[in-house]
Amino acid sequence: MIQSKHESTPLCRIPEGTRVRLHELGGCPKARAKLYAMGLTPGTELEIIQSGSGPCKLRVRGSDLVLGHGMSQKVFACPLGNCPSEVSCNKK
């Protein structure tokens, strides 16, 4: 669960139904390139459709995406309304 107002959290730990703003992409350059190619770029708004220990389902830019659990641990986001800009988020 998201613990404080301005923390970014891995997508796999954000509750279902939450709308978030993408803050940071971790992982190796190849993983980041794959995420960028799917439209997951810092500042993008998305909705968590399903999260937890399995795949993470997202709705981003009008499309549904599924990320494996490992990949979703490398994507950090803040809830909308609690993260006015990407710069104000602090990685957990």
Write the layout of secondary structure elements.
Layout: E1 7-10, E2 19-25, H1 29-37, E3 45-50, E4 56-60, E5 63-67, H2 69-72, E6 75-79, E7 90-91
Parallel strand pairs: 1-7
Antiparallel strand pairs: 1-6, 2-3, 2-6, 3-4, 4-5
Characterise the protein shown here.
- It is built from 2 helices and 7 strands, in the order E-E-H-E-E-E-H-E-E.
- The chain has helices at 29-37, 69-72; strands spanning 7-10, 19-25, 45-50, 56-60, 63-67, 75-79, 90-91.
Helix content: 10-25%
**What proportion of the residues form beta strands (DSSP E)?**
35-45%
Total strands: 7
Classify the secondary structure makeup into a structural class: mainly beta
Count of alpha/pi helices: 2
Q: Radius of gyration over alpha carbons?
A: 12 Å
Strand and helix order: EEHEEEHEE
> Average pLDDT across residues?
84
**Termini separation (Å)?**
12 Å
Strand sequence of the main sheet, in spatial order? 5-4-3-2-6-1-7
* Unreliable stretches covering 5 or more consecutive residues: 1-5, 84-88
Q: Biggest sheet, in brief?
A: 7 strands, mixed
Salient structural properties:
single chain; 92 residues; mainly beta; 2 helices; 37% strand; globular; disordered N terminus
Short description:
With 92 residues, the protein is mostly beta strands.
